[in-house]
Amino acid sequence: MTTLPPMSTHQLLMIEDDTRLAQMVGDYLGNNGLEVAHMADGKSGLERLQPADGGSAQLPDLVILDLMLPDMDGLEVCRRIRAMSGAAAQVPVLMLTAKGDPMDRIIGLEIGADDYLPKPFEPRELLARIRAILRRKGSDGPAPASAAMRFGSLEIDRDARTVTVAGQSCDLTSYQFDLLVALAERAGRVLTRDQIMEAVRGRELEAFDRSIDVHMGRIRAAIEADPKNPKRILTVRGVGYVFAKQQD
C-alpha cells in the first residue's frame, strides 16, 4: 500500500478491543510519523488520560475511540473524557462507528467527539482525518494570521483557541471552535453546509452529512442567549448559515 508523506511525530491513543485492527492501524500510522499507544477497554483508556491515583499523564494529541468496547460503550468514554479536569478534557476525539448507525454518530458529535469514521475504513482515510484534526488543533501547520475577533460581547481568540461571552468561557470542541472561526471570518456571508465543511476540513464531503447541523446546535447552545432564537448564527432556509455582522 502506498503511504502518504510522513508528518512530524504525534502521540495518539487508540481505545479499541480489536487487537488485530489496532495493530494494523498502529503499523500504518507509525509508517507515517505517528506513534500509537493502544488500550483494549474504556477503563484503561480513561486511566491513560487521567490516572486514577492522581499521578501525571503525558496526554496524547488525539484519541481514536471505538464505539463498541467490552466494559463500556465509546459514547460513555467520550462523555467521561469531556468531563475530565484540565487539558485532558480538550483532547480531540475521533470516534470509530458502525457503518449503519448514523444516530450513534450524531450522538457522538453531540457529546463532544470531533469527528467520526465508519467501519470498515481505509487506513489512508483515517490518516487524512487525523491530519485534519491535528491541523485544526494547531499542532501542525501555520498559526492564524491574527488573534481575537469581537462581536459585541462575544470574543473569539484564535491564538488561545478560546471563546467567551461577556467574559464567561464557552465549552466547544476543537472542531466546533474551527467551525465558529470559519463562520466568523466570513461574517455577513451566507455559506452552504458544504462550503463551511470545506473551509474547516479542506476536502469535499457527502452532501447529506448531518454532522454540520449537530455541531451548529452545540455552538449555539454555547454562545447564544437563547439557542432556539439565535441572533449570532442564523439559518438561511434551504441554503445554509450566516454569521451576523452586527451583534449585541
UniProtKB/TrEMBL annotation:
Domain of life: Bacteria
Ranges of the DNA-binding region feature: 146-245
InterPro entries: CheY-like_superfamily, OmpR/PhoB-type_DNA-bd, Sig_transdc_resp-reg_C-effctor, Sig_transdc_resp-reg_receiver, WalR-like, WH-like_DNA-bd_sf
Record lineage: Bacteria, Pseudomonadati, Pseudomonadota, Betaproteobacteria, Burkholderiales
OmpR/PhoB-type domain span: 146-245
Entry keyword Cell membrane: no
PROSITE patterns: OMPR_PHOB (PS51755), RESPONSE_REGULATORY (PS50110)
Matching SUPFAM superfamilies: C-terminal effector domain of the bipartite response regulators (SSF46894), CheY-like (SSF52172)
Transcription in keyword set: yes
Keywords: DNA-binding, Phosphoprotein, Transcription, Transcription regulation, Two-component regulatory system
Residue span(s) of domain Response regulatory: 11-134
PANTHER family: DNA-BINDING DUAL TRANSCRIPTIONAL REGULATOR OMPR, REGULATOR OF RPOS
4-aspartylphosphate sites (modified residues): 66
Protein name: Response regulator
SMART domains given in the database record: REC, Trans_reg_C
